[in-house]
């Protein structure tokens, strides 16, 4: 027995923020000094490196749990199930519900509990909880659903990734242009045929790498130093990802006993276009091959990096045929993979 995804849904916020919208930002160095390059040059280089042209921000009245609810409704409808039959709601996020313009995160009650309430699920045996696992949170939620279902503790799980990163970014940090908002959800249940999860890998590297992503003060020294924003050591993350993600993916594929040539798509966390491309090239190099064309669908150009939401959102867009030049067919084998704060890495192979 394994597990399979029987329904998916995503919520892409309506507000589009283009790179042009950052032209008036006053970007500073980590030391608080003005950057020597003009903002127009910074923005253009940013696009060349990340591939991001625009990103989506949530409407003011919506919180991360609202986005999660919207995506979950779509997944439940897609799966054609009664929500009362869900045994676990597992919601991955990083910062909880953050109201626009506020500095506090609200995680009481848990976001998963809030989604259960919004879905009006009465069954008390439907257990709802959150996980914090950085950007790989949704994949880790799927691995937990796998454990619950295989152990007999559950028959059906709702796994969600939702985030509003736009509310925890420092406007004086050029890395703020990376982040976005969104949500993706999946309904998962047992599979008794050849479809579903084939193998997985998951790991936490914390000895030297724990603080590559962290909460830090604004680069603008005149602002309140007690207000914290998402920060990262970009170069260290890039090098870490290139050294470790391809190896994890290789191990995962080898466990599945699927030849590398049979992999049809790689659904990887939309962190940075150049980094993702480098990871895929390094991954195929481990097998003495080069990546086939159209192996890695990308949504980062228009949606930005919405952390835990990028992988389930990308899958939902792909499985429903909404990505140009990409399609999936029954029997195709795909890889899901992610890397993020922790530093955490995970992956799983999956047959449609």
UniProtKB/TrEMBL annotation:
It comes from the Bacteria. Keywords: Acyltransferase, Transferase. It comes from Flavobacterium ichthyis. Residues 129-202 form the Beta-ketoacyl-[acyl-carrier-protein] synthase III N-terminal domain. This is Ketoacyl-ACP synthase III. Residues 254-351 form the Beta-ketoacyl-[acyl-carrier-protein] synthase III C-terminal domain.
């Amino acid at each position: 027995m394994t597990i399979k995804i029987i329904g998916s849904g995503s919520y892409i916020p309506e507000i589009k923020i283009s790179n042009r919208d950052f032209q008036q930002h006053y970007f500073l160095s980590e030391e608080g000094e003005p950057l020597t390059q003009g903002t127009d040059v910074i923005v253009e280089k940013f696009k060349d490196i990340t591939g991001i042209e625009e990103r989506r921000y949530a409407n003011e009245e919506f919180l991360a749990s609202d986005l999660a609810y919207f995506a979950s409704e779509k997944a439940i409808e897609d799966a054609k199930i009664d929500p009362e039959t869900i045994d676990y709601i597992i919601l991955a996020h990083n910062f909880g519900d953050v109201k626009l313009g506020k500095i506090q995160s609200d995680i009481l009650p848990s976001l998963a509990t809030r989604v259960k309430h919004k879905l009006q699920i009465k069954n008390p045996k439907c257990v709802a909880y959150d996980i914090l696992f950085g950007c790989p949170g949704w994949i880790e939620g799927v691995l937990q659903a796998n454990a619950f279902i295989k152990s007999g503790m559950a028959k059906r799980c709702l796994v969600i990734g939702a985030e509003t990163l736009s509310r925890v970014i420092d406007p004086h940090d050029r890395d703020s242009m990376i982040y976005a908002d969104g949500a993706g959800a999946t309904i998962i249940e047992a599979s008794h045929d050849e479809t579903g999860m084939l193998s997985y890998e998951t790991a936490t590297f914390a000895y030297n790498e724990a603080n590559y992503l962290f909460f830090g003060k604004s680069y603008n020294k005149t602002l309140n130093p007690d207000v914290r924003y998402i920060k990262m050591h970009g170069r260290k993350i890039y090098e870490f990802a290139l050294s470790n993600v391809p190896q994890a993916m290789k191990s995962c594929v080898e466990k599945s006993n699927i030849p590398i040539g049979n992999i049809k798509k790689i659904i990887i966390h939309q962190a940075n276009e150049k980094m993702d491309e480098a990871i895929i090239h390094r991954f195929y190099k481990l097998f003495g091959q080069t990546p086939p064309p159209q192996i890695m669908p990308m949504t980062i150009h228009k949606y930005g990096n919405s952390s835990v939401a990028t992988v389930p959102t990308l899958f939902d867009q792909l499985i429903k045929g909404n990505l140009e030049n990409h399609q999936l067919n029954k029997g195709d084998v795909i890889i899901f993979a992610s890397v993020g704060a922790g530093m955490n890495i995970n992956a799983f192979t999956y047959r449609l």
